[in-house]
Amino acid sequence: VQSFMRGWLCRRKWKTIVQDYICSPHAESMRKRNQIVFNMVEAESEYVHQLYVLVNCFLRPLRMAASSKKPPISHDDVSSIFLNSETIMFLHEIFHQGLKARIANWPTLILADLFDILLPMLNIYQEFVRNHQYSLQVLANCKQNRDFDKLLKQYEANPACEGRMLETFLTYPMFQIPRYIITLHELLAHTPHEHVERKSLEFAKSKLEELSRVMHDEVSDTENIRKNLAIERTIVEGCDILLDTSQTFIRQGSLIQVPSVERGKLSKVRLGSLSLKKEGERQCFLFTKHFLICTRSSGGKLHLLKTGGVLSLIECTLIEETDAS
């Protein structure tokens, strides 16, 4: 009887302890943490599938097409468009398998060592992100070839693509690092300070944030250089100042140059000659250091003004005319 009573009292007390813990803030925090991990596994599974489609429905078929008798695309262009895509897929397949192995040991979830495996390989991502704009540019140029465009549409009609274009699949890796940063931030919000992997998760988050900043700066610099070169190529005479990498493009547009008339005669205009009857439309480009003024010919080509076509903003003074007349 005493043994029975002791067992009953113990079970009742244990039930109270368990119920109290279930309702405690710590248990609620752990439930949220587990849910974040489960969502992370699902998102990683979806991402691996996207990479699988990119590699198996586009990269490998195009690589075979480049080796055909009449290739619609060259091997160099394939490499430029899909730089590191296959390696990134293999990397995330390993990462995904590791996540599933950790889930198999639930409720014990140790994730920090998985990120330790991932971190040294992130330079592969850095190269992919740096190359992204160029890869889309190469793809756009390749689409000018009818044979390639026709072949690409056949690949995009594959049911595995679910109606998505190649450009969409090439964009997915661009958002993966920021997604990991958000996930780690949420995990740390529900990880106690005395938790065994708190420091490792904080280290992984700091490394990913550092990489994200570097990639953002590199992408901005690369896009700016390409924009400057694109403008430089549209000017018939060329423009050496646009070859300065510190020259940042701000905006472009057209301005109307109004002829200055004094006593029925045209006054001398610094920005090229104009007739009395006609206003002149100028195509203008504003940069951080210079202001370019161009005329557009009937053929659509741009020509720098012979006089005052390149204005140095460092030497300029802005004067606001308050007189309404």
From TrEMBL:
Q: Name one GO cellular component term.
A: cytoplasm
Highest taxon above the source species? Eukaryota
Q: What InterPro entries would the database entry show?
A: DBL_dom_sf, DH_dom, FYVE_RhoGEF_PH, PH-like_dom_sf
Citing just one GO molecular function, the answer is: guanyl-nucleotide exchange factor activity
Output the CDD domains linked to this UniProt entry: RhoGEF
Domain DH positions: 32-218
Any Pfam family the entry gives: RhoGEF
Cited PANTHER family? FACIOGENITAL DYSPLASIA PROTEIN (PTHR12673), LD03170P (PTHR12673:SF159)
Q: What is this protein called?
A: RGRF2 factor
Q: Which organism is it from?
A: Urocolius indicus (Red-faced mousebird)
Q: Which gene encodes it?
A: Rasgrf2_0
